[in-house]
């Protein structure tokens, strides 16, 4: 198969979808790998390293899209890329369709095959290609939140871990999944007073068992959230409904109940956000303030630490990329059920129900293409 790796063009996105080591694994199996000039530079990988691994370098993004049968990316295509995607071309990347209708419509119109990292799913309902970036984003949420709590950045002017004789900051985490768990570990390690809210009692029992003493769990409901936000210094939104838009757990009116300088970090922003006042921001302009509350809503948080993120992501995606390259998307999906829910759009049909429901569009069961 001919595989293309374009350079990411989203604002401050420095990750790359394939490392030189990954390219070598694909080339060993007889596949042709084309990498756009300087695509790996932001993650610390030179063109020379790719050519040494057997890949070929192409000068432009247009060249990569025009030659490839499968495109491997990190982030969803953005508008300048829409016209480059060909009918029947396989795109293997994060899409988060349910949060952005123009992207969904563009992929329907170009009749590509869209296999989304974030909805590839194991039998135990875990999301193997979302986990590594969720781990990075969860840890970064505390790193960034602690930074924006500083007064020069319009925060409360509070040190996350406090000092002897001064109480630490209160951190509230909405969601006890991968993001929430990683955020809690980081916040607890820095000495904060941490509360994780979730709707699953089994999950909270697990977290109570493994977390240090400065982490508490609490049932997530509107009453409890309204009470907790009055005292929180840093709030992390870490809610995920696979493939669907995140629910708004913090509404616009709740901001007035928060202390001035409270920091909100919405890690769910690429799925629409679990904070109503959330809107996607960039690493270039990461925050904005509403009602004296600092909002950090960067949609590609792991892009700020591209070396770590690229290695973590490709460790997870490469085995699937090899299956897709070796067998083609249809045979790979028939032989590996984990790939089936990853299929979101095929030949102009939306085959992932939550995406179709998000925009009231027609849904076609994926079985139509796997029969």
TrEMBL record:
Broad EC category: oxidoreductase
EC?
1.4.1.1
Record's catalysed reaction(s): L-alanine + NAD(+) + H2O = pyruvate + NH4(+) + NADH + H(+)
Query: Which one of the record's GO molecular function terms can you name?
Result: alanine dehydrogenase activity
Top-level taxon in the UniProt lineage? Bacteria
Entry's family note: Belongs to the AlaDH/PNT family.
Q: What are the annotated GO cellular component locations?
A: plasma membrane
Mind telling me which Pfam families this protein's record contains? AlaDh_PNT_C (PF01262), AlaDh_PNT_N (PF05222)
Question: Residue ranges of the Alanine dehydrogenase/pyridine nucleotide transhydrogenase N-terminal domain?
Answer: 4-137
Q: Locate the Alanine dehydrogenase/pyridine nucleotide transhydrogenase NAD(H)-binding domain: which residues?
A: 149-297
The UniProt record gives the binding positions of NAD(+) as 134, 198, 203, 220, 239-240, 267-270, 298-301
Q: What is this protein called?
A: Alanine dehydrogenase
Binding residues annotated for substrate, in chain numbering: 15, 75
Q: Which UniProt keywords apply?
A: NAD, Nucleotide-binding, Oxidoreductase
CDD domains, from UniProt?
L-AlaDH
Tagged with keyword Nucleotide-binding: yes
Q: What processes does the entry annotate via GO biological process terms?
A: L-alanine catabolic process
């Amino acid at each position: 198969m001919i595989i293309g790796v374009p350079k990411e063009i989203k604002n401050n996105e420095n990750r790359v979808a394939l490392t030189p080591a990954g390219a070598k694994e694909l080339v060993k199996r007889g596949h042709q790998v084309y990498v756009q000039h300087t695509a790996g530079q932001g993650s610390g990988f030179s063109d020379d390293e790719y050519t040494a691994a057997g890949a070929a370098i192409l000068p432009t993004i247009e060249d990569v899209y025009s030659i490839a049968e499968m495109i491997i990316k990190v982030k969803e295509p953005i508008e300048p890329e829409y016209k480059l995607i060909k009918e029947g071309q396989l795109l293997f990347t994060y899409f988060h369709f349910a949060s952005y209708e123009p992207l969904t419509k563009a992929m329907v119109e170009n009749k590509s095959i869209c296999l989304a990292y974030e909805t590839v799913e194991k039998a135990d309902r875990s999301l193997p290609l979302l986990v590594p970036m969720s781990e990075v984003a969860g840890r970064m949420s505390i790193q960034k939140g602690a930074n924006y709590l500083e007064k020069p950045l319009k925060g409360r002017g509070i040190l996350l871990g406090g000092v002897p004789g001064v109480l630490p900051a209160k951190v509230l985490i909405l969601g006890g999944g991968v993001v929430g768990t990683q955020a809690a570990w980081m916040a607890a390690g820095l000495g904060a007073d941490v509360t994780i809210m979730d709707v699953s009692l089994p999950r909270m029992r697990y977290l109570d068992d493994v977390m240090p003493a400065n982490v508490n769990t609490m049932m997530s409901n509107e009453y409890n959230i309204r009470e907790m936000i009055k005292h929180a210094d840093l709030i992390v939104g870490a809610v995920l409904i696979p493939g669907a838009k995140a629910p708004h757990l913090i509404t616009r009116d709740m901001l007035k109940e928060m202390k001035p300088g409270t920091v909100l970090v919405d890690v769910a922003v690429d799925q629409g956000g679990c904070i109503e006042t959330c809107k996607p921001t960039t690493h270039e302009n990461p925050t904005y303030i509403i009602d004296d509350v600092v909002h950090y809503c960067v949609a590609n948080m792991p892009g700020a630490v591209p070396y770590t993120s690229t290695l973590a992501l490709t460790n997870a995606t490469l085995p699937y990329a090899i299956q897709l390259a070796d067998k083609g998307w249809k045979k790979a999906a028939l032989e590996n059920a984990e790939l089936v829910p990853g299929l979101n759009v095929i030949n102009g049909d939306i085959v992932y129900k939550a995406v179709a429901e998000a925009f009231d569009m027609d849904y076609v069961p994926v079985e139509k293409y796997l029969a």
